[in-house]
Amino acid sequence: MSVIVIGIDRITVNVGQKFDPENQRHIDKVIKAVAAQHGEGFEIENFEPATGKAVLRRENRSAIASHTGNASIEVPLPTGTTERDGKKRSLAFADAYPGYVMTTFEPHRRRAILSKLEEDIVLTRDALATALRCEPWDIQVSYRPKGGYDFTLPSTYRPSAHDKALTEVTETIIGKPGWYFETDTRERTGSIIPAELPTFKAVYPTPLPKKVEPFNPDKDDHFHIPIGTALPEPGKKHTEQIIDISAHQHVQIGGIAQAGKSTVVNAYITQFLARGAQLAIIDTPDKAVDFAWCKDFVTPGGWGCENIFESATVTKLIEKEKTRRSAIIARNGVQNWTQLPPDQRVMPLLLVIDEVTVLFSMEPVPKTNKDSPQVLLDMKDEAESNNLAKEILQKGINDIAAEMRFAGIFLALSTQVASTDTGLRTKLRSNLGHKVLLGANPTEGNRRLIFNDPEGVPRVPSHIREDPVAARGTGSIEPQGSNPAVFKGYYRSTDEYRKWLISMGIKQNADIRPTVGQVTDVFGDADIDLSSRMDPSPTDVTPSAEAAPTFVSSAGSRAQAQHEALLGD
């Protein structure tokens, strides 16, 4: 039979010794405060002037779901029974009524209700009671129509205090990993829902829409840069992982070799370029091939990949661009680039720096004296010259990170190791608001060096780490302004990115390296080597347009080669 139960909720409230139970204004004030926190329906049952505490009660009429379809009996309780007698009565009833368990205990009404329950309902009820720190008869459990269980919540339930334990019993005692629970604090109900552990597909292609609007600061979605697919909570759908550059304009991307940094950086670059942003790149000559696919999309003078002197010069050119933009901002009487009127608007400038620790690492300077051989003197001069350029580069990057956000200058910094020992000082890292760490199983040391709150950033779950297909290209992100997450980076071949950007009409440039004159403005007439492994030395004369490089899907980008290696056969 189905039993309708009138349960009694009681709470104790500290109202102070000045409370007057005969004063309706006092009563209404207390009841209103209690209703705001615990819901409507409470009335004052008792007040103790000595302690200043009041007891409030509320009748709770509800159909006890666990009784539905089961045999239930109501048993009277002897006079003088109290709440503390619940365990004793439960054991006594179990002996007296074999096959029945106590599902309701109401000493104030001098009754208990006993019901016949399925064994798994009893086990679930006991596990939930342990997690909720209440007695089993304080909650009711029934089967969900689509599997799993529905249950009621005690009045003492607080998500912050109980949800961690609820997760544990849901995944390890009641169900298995992938099962999850939902609660409704207003209705004081909950459900345990069977589900499979969420995972990733092998590849999530980068969205390449037919039309993309240029950056418009008036549109919030223009600041949402998609980089991959986020791992959902159990029972939820996958969502797009974005970096919100309105929350912070700089991002740090870390990860070991073959972890997928280049694929994420390439997707990031592509989304900026598609919205009309300017691009500058600083990298070592050895790694510059990674960006060959987008080389001619770089803004004039923004290619700092041929030697350390041109790398440093790019930061100085960006500083000049900041000064130019500052004048426009000041002239219009606004605070930053997003507030400029449409006819004065500037586009974001994205500076990508790869292998930053190699670029920052100082070279050893040989010790010499007047009798040292010329070759050693030359080595010393070269090391000192290179280190000067590296110091200029470091200062430039630090200034960009700290001072140029108002001018619409964005920074994406990529590196394998992010420690002070490698030149990445704490101040610089603290100015990079979004933190991304690629790799399914990074070391704790790498997590501490990348994330502001490593304990608050979820790790790639073990079931994904153990699946070589799902694990490829995964990592964790600590984005500014939103919740940390596990995600899998978007992927397209660099050939696809390039063709798409060309189809969008993105401007291609030939004079992308800083000129000799621009380098000389920074270093004076110092005897420095501006030779390049890829291009002839730059000149002040505008070169004829060079032919766009030909790209083959299987070559021309380390990012693509890495991803194909990750995918295997």
UniProtKB/TrEMBL annotation:
Residues 551-560 have a biased composition (Polar residues). It comes from the Bacteria. Residues 67-86, 529-569 are annotated as: Disordered. InterPro entries: P-loop_NTPase (IPR027417). This is FtsK domain-containing protein. It comes from Enteractinococcus helveticum.
